[in-house]
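User: Sequence recovery, please. Input:
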């Protein structure tokens, strides 16, 4: 925010019915408080732009239907509209730029009509997980495994030690990209708890935590999961087999993984991980 305030949140984008619209859900936590929003957008061929309905907890009437549409200006999607607030006309703007498969920048603007608008919020969004949690109408071991995988991914990004521990088998063993082997206790104490503490303290954050090309082989009560992963984070650096705060440092890695999950009494637990095939890693 212009005054230096920062926050974090989640935007979920998905196709609407018939893939003819797009649905957006937002939840943010920043200095002014918590924010929730919901939008449905669709292409208006006649207006040659993206029309939408916007609902949020900071909209007095609940929802608004802007008269104008968002239009493409080169590689940017731009929306501008004038509204009357407290008897005064105010121009609002929104720009999506730097649009890439895994990231974009979103700038909210405000000002007097006819004048240059000033940014009120800048959002830098990075995709952190693929939507491999596919909806299903009936429960099945594979659907439950997808749910457990999604829970663990979210907990890894947020530094949720309790959730990670509950999804990890007591017999857990991990081999990292350097061939270092840890059991459950060692991995939690040496690696995850120190990193989770930095995440919770706001000293480290994952900018990219992307799993892709995920494939699952179901073998009864055992499942073998393989895939690739891209990691980028800032605010800390590895120190041996643990982590230490380092405000000016960033880390990054591309790797492939093999994970073994086991099902016990209807619950899935991660039992083994082997990370390998590091393509690049950098600290600075």
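Assistant: Recovered sequence (284 residues):
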């Amino acid at each position: 925010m212009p005054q230096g305030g920062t926050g974090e949140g989640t935007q979920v984008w998905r196709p609407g019915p018939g893939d003819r619209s797009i649905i957006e859900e937002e939840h943010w936590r920043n200095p002014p408080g918590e924010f929730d929003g919901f939008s449905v957008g669709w292409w208006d061929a006649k207006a040659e732009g993206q029309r939408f309905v916007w609902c949020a907890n900071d909209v007095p009437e609940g929802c608004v239907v802007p008269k104008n549409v968002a239009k493409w200006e080169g590689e940017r999607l731009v929306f501008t509209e004038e509204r009357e607030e407290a008897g005064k006309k105010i121009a609002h703007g929104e720009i999506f730029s730097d649009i890439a498969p895994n990231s974009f920048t979103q700038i909210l603007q405000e000002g007097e009509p006819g004048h240059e608008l000033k940014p009120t919020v800048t959002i830098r969004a990075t995709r952190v997980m693929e939507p491999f949690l596919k909806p299903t109408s009936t429960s099945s071991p594979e659907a439950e495994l997808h749910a457990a995988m999604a829970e663990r991914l979210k907990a890894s990004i947020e530094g949720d030690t309790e959730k990670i521990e509950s999804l990890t088998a007591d017999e857990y063993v991990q081999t990292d990209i350097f061939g270092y082997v840890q059991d459950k206790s060692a991995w939690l104490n040496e690696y995850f708890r120190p990193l989770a503490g930095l995440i919770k303290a706001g000293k480290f954050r994952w900018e990219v935590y992307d799993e892709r090309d995920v494939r699952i082989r179901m073998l009864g009560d055992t499942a073998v999961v393989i895939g690739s992963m891209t990691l980028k984070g800032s605010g800390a650096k590895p120190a041996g087999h643990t982590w230490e705060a380092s405000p000016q440092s960033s880390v990054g890695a591309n790797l492939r993984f093999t994970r073994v999950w086991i099902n016990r009494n209807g619950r899935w637990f991660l039992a083994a991980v082997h990370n390998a095939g590091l393509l690049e890693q950098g600290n600075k």
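The CA atoms of residues 142 and 218 lie 7 Å apart.
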